[in-house]
Write a structure and sequence with these properties.
By secondary structure, the protein is mostly helical. Helix content is 48%, strand content 1%. The chain has 12 helices and 2 strands, in the order βααααααβαααααα. α5 packs across α7 and α9 packs antiparallel against α10. The two termini are 35 Å apart. About 3% of the residues have low confidence.
Length: 343
């Protein structure tokens, strides 16, 4: 199996899509926006060109009365929801953008982007080695060996990683010859017990032990991966007041695990081997769909029990067809249509 070779466009001027990764630039200044960018990218939107996001967002605020947002393309509506969530999550940012010059807007975007790139790089580095501790069976040695400092034998070049990356619905052990694997062909490791039911594709989706281990590794602490989480131990999450799992954080962790298992050694905007942007966006498309409210609600409840068991959002799911369920479903539909993208 090989992955599809698709090159992402790079936003480099006003009007370009911001929801794609842009080129990297060195930003030497230290600013709280860098720290905020780390958390925002993990929990709200990861693969983003922040200078373009801010530039386009400010322009859109000026034009929104003349051109209703609902008349805009779907990608532009999503971009604006991400922009509004960023404004909401950082007090004073809107005023700073409105009062600043174009150079200041770009600088703010670069600071947030620096934090996002730093978080992504740190997580990629951590998971590159840790993933092998989780995929190997207890008491058994991986054969042939997988080298922690090199990914040359990973991806579809190794039976273990290849079987985990194999698209759901295909059998890794059946001869299938050479084929392209696109980002929207989800790998079997996303499913609990690596079992996929074509009659019920939601069953077990995004509930695998690999995802739980990786989530705890990033958002709580590497030492807590195999232990029960406690309220006082959610280290990284507590630093940013995080007490529940977001849909974007699930898509982010899934993307990181998929990359860790792959052959690619560098996660970048030119990563055409893993097609990570397509993969990330395809998960968000499902998890942001109001018509999937029931499944999404149950999924988030399950995840909060794994990571934040003492939080009120980790309680049992709302009863189906109840008045409260209908109210929440209507609220979520309105939120997805006009407000920020996070859950």
């Amino acid at each position: 199996m090989t992955t599809q070779d698709t090159t992402s466009s790079i936003p480099n001027k006003r009007g370009s899509s911001a929801l794609q990764m842009g080129s990297r630039k060195k930003v030497s200044s230290s600013d709280p926006l860098v720290s905020h960018g780390r958390h925002f990218s993990r929990t709200v939107f990861a693969l983003c060109n922040y200078p373009s996001l801010l530039t386009n967002g400010v322009l859109r605020l000026e034009q929104i009365e003349d051109i209703p947002l609902e008349d805009s393309p779907a990608e532009e509506r999503r971009e604006h929801r991400v922009f509004k969530q960023l404004l909401k999550s950082y007090p004073g940012l809107l005023e700073r953008l409105k009062d600043g010059s174009e150079e200041e807007i770009l600088r703010v975007g670069e600071l947030i982007g620096k934090g996002a790139a730093g978080a992504r790089g740190d997580d990629t580095k951590m998971l590159k080695s840790a993933i092998f501790n989780w995929v190997s069976l207890k008491g058994k040695v991986i054969q042939p060996p997988l080298h922690r400092n090199s990914k040359i034998d990973c991806g579809f070049n190794h039976d273990l990683t290849g079987s985990l990356l194999c698209p759901a619905g295909l059998d890794w052990n059946d001869p299938h010859g050479e084929m392209l694997v696109c980002g929207d062909q989800w790998p079997i490791f996303l499913y609990a017990h690596h079992a996929y039911d074509p009659e019920d594709p939601w069953c077990g989706l995004l509930r695998s032990h690999l995802l739980v281990y990786a989530y705890k590794h990033v958002f709580t602490s590497p030492s807590l991966v195999n232990r029960e989480p406690k309220a006082t131990r959610s280290i990284n999450a507590c630093l940013h007041g995080m007490n529940s799992v977001t849909i974007a954080s699930l898509a982010y962790i899934a993307t990181q695990v998929r990359f860790a298992l792959s052959l690619s050694s560098v996660f970048s905007r030119t990563d055409t081997t893993t097609d990570s942007e397509t993969f990330y966006h395809s998960l968000l498309d499902l998890l942001e769909d109001p018509e999937e409210y029931k499944e999404i609600n149950e999924l988030l409840t399950w995840w909060n029990r794994q990571v934040f068991p003492t939080s009120s959002v980790a309680k049992r799911p709302i009863s189906a067809n109840s008045a409260l369920s209908k109210i929440r479903q209507k609220h979520m539909a309105l939120k997805q249509a006009s407000n920020p993208v996070s859950s």
